Amino acid sequence: METPAFLDRDRPDVPNLVVPGGVTPFYLQGSPVRGRLVRLGVLADVLLTRHDNPAPITRLAGKALALVAALASALKFHGSFSLQIKGDGPVRMLVADCTDTGALRFYVRTDEDALNALLAETPKPTDRELLGNGYLALTIDQGAETERHQGIVDIAGDDLSSMATHYFATSEQHACWLYLTCQLTDAGWRAGGLVLERIAGEGGTHVVGAETDDASWETATILASTLSAREVLDDTLAPSDLLYRLFHEEGLHVSQPRALAYGCRCSRARLVEVLHGFPEEDLDHMMQDDGQIVMTCEFCNHDFRFPRKEVAGRTQ
Ligand SMILES: [Zn+2]
């Protein structure tokens, strides 16, 4: 069994923060609708501010975190759900993932010159302008015993919500309605969203006709569209109250909320293993003037320092 993060002495000095009610699953009785309300709360600020990104990139990253948090909460086994977007825009690569226990992390790689050029011209670029053309992949990894599932689609649409909707419609042939938001509020960065999924049948309690199903799905998406960013990001508004506001006439059933947590899995011990795999010559090249090798975790932006003379390279 893996050592819990807070007991792992090889962990860097990063926050071990848990937000208990980060994801609120629900379903609508009598409708083919299942959903999740996601609210990262203070976790959004803690994760996003570890990186010195301009606001438009922080907003995109926050929405990506909300998306993977929503999707990972549907995992039935141990594993993780990861989003990877690779484009030819100023954001070259965005990776966000979330485990079945709600451990979240992300990183963004940018082309700084291209980003500065875009921001000089368009101070508030769309997600699409940041990402350009490329692809979006979602991967479900549920351990060694199960096959990894990955779907890939072209980047389509102006914002991450529509890119993900397009993914589900084409790659999974699955109707989804998504709203994702991330903003700098008085309380710091906040991110969240609402995801509705159209499911086959409805909990098995009664069989309704296809037309009724279409109508119920449409009603649910119309109600969901009335949601505002302010409501999603307001820490003082209970998730169940917000869901009640939207769906109280649609047979709303709120399920047990799930936690989200600061989820970088980097550790000193693991990085030492990585260094052991390099030939001595490469390790010499990595060494800085002060005799140290520095490895930075892309996810939590933590610098790990290793004295070169304490690291043995690969022996052939
Ligand atoms: Zn890390």
Indicate the low-confidence ranges by residue numbers.
none
Gross geometry: globular
| Share of helix, binned | 25-40%
Cofactors, ions, other ligands: zinc ion
Number of extended strands: 13
Give the terminus-to-terminus CA distance: 32 Å
Q: Strand-and-helix sequence, N→C?
A: EEHHEEEHHEEHEEHHHEEHHEE
What percentage of the residues does DSSP assign to strands (E)?
A: 25-35%
Structural class: alpha+beta
Count of separate DSSP helical elements: 10
Integer average pLDDT: 90
Largest sheet entry = 11 strands, mixed
Radius of gyration: 21 Å
Attribute tags:
316 residues; alpha+beta; eleven-stranded mixed sheet; 13 strands; 30% strand; globular; binds zinc ion
Provide a descriptive summary of the structure in words.
This protein has 316 residues and is of the alpha+beta class. Helices cover 30% and strands 30% of the residues. It has 10 helices and 13 strands. The strands form 2 sheets. Strands 1, 2, 3, 4, 5, 6, 7, 8, 9, 10 and 11 form an 11-stranded mixed sheet that branches. A two-stranded antiparallel ribbon has the order 12-13. A hairpin with a 4-residue loop joins strand 1 (18-28) and strand 2 (33-39). The model has no long low-confidence stretch (mean pLDDT 90). Residues 264, 266, 297, 299-300, 302 line the site of zinc ion.
In short:
The chain is an alpha+beta fold. The protein is built from ten helices and 13 strands.
Topology:
Blueprint: E1 18-28, E2 33-39, H1 42-48, H2 55-72, E3 80-87, E4 91-99, E5 103-110, H3 112-121, H4 127-131, E6 134-141, E7 149-154, H5 160-170, E8 176-185, E9 188-198, H6 210-224, H7 229-233, H8 239-247, E10 252-254, E11 258-262, H9 268-276, H10 280-286, E12 292-296, E13 303-307
Parallel strand pairs: 5-11
Antiparallel strand pairs: 1-2, 1-10, 1-11, 2-9, 3-4, 3-6, 4-5, 6-7, 8-9, 12-13
The structure holds zinc ion.
